[in-house]
Amino acid sequence: MGNKPQIDVIIPSFNAQYLLEKNLPSLVKNTDNLGKLIIIDNGSEDDTVSWLNQKYPETIIVSNKTNLGYTKPVNQGIAFSDSEFFVLMNNDVRPHAGYITAALPYFSDPEVFAVTFNEEGTSWPDMSWSAGKMQFSEGKNKTNPVLSAWASGGSAIFRRSIWDKLGGLDEIYAPFYWEDIDIGYRAWKSGYKIIWEPKATVLHDHESTSKKLNPQYISLIKQRNELLFNWLNVTDIGYRTGHLLFLAKHTLAHPGYLKVVLSALWRYLTHPHQKRNFLISDRNVLSHISQSI
């Protein structure tokens, strides 16, 4: 890409000074041409803000009074970025040296929306349609770069101009979960592509502060947002018919699932969401995902 562009980094955080202490040194050291470091503090009650002001005074701190989760805070943070390329990073992720250098060359292709990093111990996300909804699994071969279903909201680099065209993260998914899958799939169906690069390595400790929340609430949000993803993005008539059959059969077999369906329906009807003007069919997208490049 010629001269390396400035790279802004956006990190949402809540009561996680200990994670920032552990991971920020590696991030700052290993992010080539680091521009703005933007941290969205979700009403932390620890010493996150004072510690950042002391140790990283150049950091832009976006302060929320309460914990807003992930979706809205990321959009808030990106509003403070002016770089064409920005990294979304969880506070429990440490990037290795060269991760930016490995990812940037792909953006010479103007259709590349994002490059998702190689998290140790996992693989790229594969996507398929089965049993009335989108299904996900980890890719098997980590040798080569592949076309990825989405870019991880916790460890990936994005092209801002396409992000802005897509409207950013859809806040119908707030407070968290499925928003990165959603924008990735919207990108694919809008004619762009996403790449998983094995040489762009990061270590994810999986110490997310969301684990401190009520597990029943977390489960409801995950299932609600899974339905929203399918309702908002899947346009194939055959797939939609299969999804309706899934809803009927699954709810009859598991009556408690009705709570999830009603929660998703209420959210869908009462909360605004991003406009979708898709160019590519679901089947076409699924035929490309996970191909080696």
Low-confidence stretches: none
**In the CATH classification, which architecture applies?**
Alpha-Beta Complex
Q: What do we call the CATH homologous superfamily? A: Spore Coat Polysaccharide Biosynthesis Protein SpsA, Chain A
The number of helical runs is 10
Task: Please state roughly what percent of the residues sit in beta strands, choosing from under 5%, 5-15%, 15-25%, 25-35%, 35-45% or over 45%.
Answer: 15-25%
**Mean pLDDT across all amino acids:** 95
Measure the end-to-end span. 18 Å
Using the alpha-carbon principal axes, give the shape: globular
What is the number of E strands?
11
Specify Rg, calculated over alpha carbons: 19 Å
The major β-sheet equals: 9 strands, mixed
- CATH class, named Alpha Beta
- The total number of structural domains is 1
- The computed structural class is alpha/beta
Can you give the helix content as a percent range? 25-40%
Along the chain, the helix and strand elements come as: EHEHEHEEHEEEEEHHEHHHH
CATH topology (level 3) name? Spore Coat Polysaccharide Biosynthesis Protein SpsA, Chain A
